[in-house]
Write a structure and sequence with these properties.
The protein has 204 residues and is mainly β. It contains two helices and twelve strands; from the N terminus they run αββββββββββββα. The chain starts with a helix and ends in a 6-residue tail after the last helix.
């Protein structure tokens, strides 16, 4: 497979779920819920259950059949990418992801309000932001529930397009154990060269 579309998708998912929360009226980091998250980019798709509770987040996916768990802990200033079948993982400092555009990295900005839309049975407010992505403008669209959950997100720019969508949304406090790594997990330090292989990609 070609690696670039896959890595674009990985960058998108890191952007959406792994940055520190920001305080804003239109996007609140303190919601608690579970859902199914779908990410699409470059003709590829990844989906799996997501658990979110006051900034902490866990997302499970299985690209190319390889089970992976991604845990975000802004309270500990770190995120984990875990391969449970291998009892291995990689730990990253949250600051290492700050270069990647995301809903939360834009939260302190003032987006353009486009109106109200229904998404998956939920009423949302639609917003638009246009930013300089370094290689040209990036247009970001967000559909946010009244309690601040980004239910849908779309991005388009010179490097391609991506989409994020939540379905089966269920609000409520999540089990604290979901946001802890397995006992005995072997953690490797952050290594950008390992990101592609850990996410199941291989250059062809």
């Amino acid at each position: 497979m070609r690696l670039w579309p896959y890595l674009l998708l990985i960058m998108a998912l890191i952007a959406v779920i792994f940055l520190p929360g920001a305080s804003a009226e239109w996007l609140k980091p303190d919601a608690a819920y579970s859902a199914v998250r779908v990410m699409r980019s470059g003709g590829m798709e990844m989906r799996g259950p997501v658990h979110h509770d006051h900034g902490k987040e866990r997302w499970e996916v299985a690209p190319q059949g390889m089970r992976q768990v991604m845990i975000r802990r802004p309270d500990q200033e770190r995120m984990l990418m875990i391969l449970p079948d291998m009892n291995m993982g990689m730990e990253l400092d949250l600051s290492q992801a700050k270069q990647v555009p995301s809903a939360e990295s834009y939260a302190a900005k003032q987006p353009e309000r486009l109106g109200r839309e229904e998404v998956g049975g939920e009423m949302t407010t639609k917003y638009r932001l246009v930013e300089d992505g370094g290689q040209g403008p990036i247009t970001m669209l967000f559909w946010v529930t009244d309690d601040g959950i980004p239910l849908r997100m779309e991005g388009s720019g010179a490097q391609g397009n991506f989409e994020m969508l939540l379905s089966d949304l269920k609000r409520g406090a999540q089990d604290a154990g979901l946001f802890e790594p397995p006992a005995g997990l072997q953690l490797m330090p952050a290594n950008p060269a390992m990101l592609g292989p850990m996410m199941g990609g291989a250059a062809q």
